[in-house]
Amino acid sequence: MGCECVDEYDNEDVRKLIERPEKPAVKSPRYRSRHASRTIREIARSKSAHKTLGQPRVPLKPPSAYLRKGEGPRPRRSKSSHKHYRPPDYARQLPDWKAAKRPARGAPGDLPDLPRDPREGRRSAGQLDFCRRNVEGVAEHRNAKVQSIKFCDTRHGDRQELRPSGLQLTYVHKKNYGRVPRFVKASRDDRKRSAAAASQRDRSQAGLPTGCVYLTEDQRAKLLESMKVKRASLMKTFQCLPFVIDTAPKIKRKAALEDKLKQVEKDIELFESHPYIFVYNE
Asked: Which member of 30, 150, 180, 227 lies 3.0 to 4.6 Å from 159 by CB, making a disulfide possible if both were Cys?
């Protein structure tokens, strides 16, 4: 009996050695109607019409036909068969009023006088009646109560307050409208006073020679203070010089500082000894 050998590589295929990647499944495009954009616009345009359960169809009245007293809707009375029972001797109307006569003073049955307010005698002409003033203030406040007026600014019925909107003239009805404010008057008065002081100073300096200016007390004090500050700075610089001065630049710098200190001290002494100082414009 013969033996038949089958080789396992007989069915080998070179094209299947490298596996190909699986292609992803491509879904079909989603259906979109060609009327989608038009439908969205129509829904957005008619959305506000359903906020009040449909658009009103009642014809609008003109401004002259505003609602007057007694023309509004009245509540319906419930029909009741109840009848109020009245006794046979029930008075249909009040009896006639008759004024009671007060008996003469001193007669029997005379009523005593009403007690007077003890504060009434202590009130003088300069004191205020706070109770009466409060009552009058409350009455004026009630009478001056202003109702809030509103106006409709959109076709959907949105309402706004009329007074803060700026559509009603309120500023021109103020008491101080058209008047100059106090701070403007104060600034004008200050400018006038400064101008008068300057003119007075010019008149006082009219007798001085030409090119000469008189220094006021404030100006003299400011100049004196600035010279003292300069003297202090020069003195500090002079004290920082080295002990050994053996070169020409050091000697020159020391001499310059000494000259400046002498000049500043001379000017300070001049300003302190003479209260009236005149400066020439040269």
From this structure: 150
pTM of the shown model = 0.29
pLDDT digits (tens, 9 = 90+) for 65-110: 888 888 888 877 777 777 777 778 877 777 787 776 665 655 555 5
Q: Nearest Cα to 272, choosing from 214, 213, 228? A: 228
The distance of Cα 150 from the centroid of its chain, to the nearest Å, equals: 23
